Structure formats: C-alpha cells, structure tokens
Amino acid sequence: MTSHLSLTKFEEKIWKQLQLLHNVDPHPWDSEVSSDPENSKFSFSIAGKAFCIIGMHPKSSRMARQSPYPAMIFNLHWQFEKLRDMGVYQRVKKRIRKADEKLQGSINPMLDDFGDSSEARQYSGRAVDSNWKCPFHH
Length: 138
Hints:
With 138 residues, this protein is an alpha+beta fold. The chain is built from 3 helices and 3 strands.
C-alpha cells in the first residue's frame, strides 16, 4: 500500500487483506467474540485469537491515526479484557479519550465500547454512516 491511497481505497484494502488472512487461517474463530461483522460482539480472529484492528493512514481525519505510511495495527482483544479484570480499563479509556480530545478538540466519533456496536466500523479509521456494510465474510 502506498501513502497516496484515498481513505476509501485504504479501507477497501484493509478488508481485502483481512479477508485473505481469514481465508488461509486454519484455526477456528476465537469463541470469545462473534465472527459476524454486523454483531456488536464482532472482533477479527486469526490463529484462534481475537484482535481489534486499527487502521493508520497519512490522510486520516483523526490525527491520532495518522502515520507516514498506511498500516494495520493488530491489538489482541484479550488485553482489553485483562484491563477490565484489573479494574483499570475505564481509567485507561478516559486517559486515551482525553488525549484525543486535547489533540483534536473532540473524541473520535467512531469510537464505541466493545459490545455497544460492531468494532468493524472502527477498523479503517474512516467515518462511516449507519448504512455502512462490512465487506468481510466469515
């Protein structure tokens, strides 16, 4: 991927890459999350582990998601559950959102807590409306 990609093309490439990874993954989907991108418990799974995907792009509308080159960050889903178990998830979340607000003047409107809506809507970093349909198929 090159940095001249539009955000829409970047989003297309993210989902194409995730679909290709899924197609060759011999492991079952992580049972802690849903494989349906329309489900509020969706999280991408590879090698039997759930991941929250963060798309980074030079032209991202969110400064915190801007990077010199297009990239995908794979955050293990269990790390968020571990923070909840430790009782620090809410504190960490508030700190991150406060920093985002300080950097950009507002909290990313695409952010939702896991279980409130499908995290698939957040992967590319592009703001999508309620009619957006995830191109991924399990």
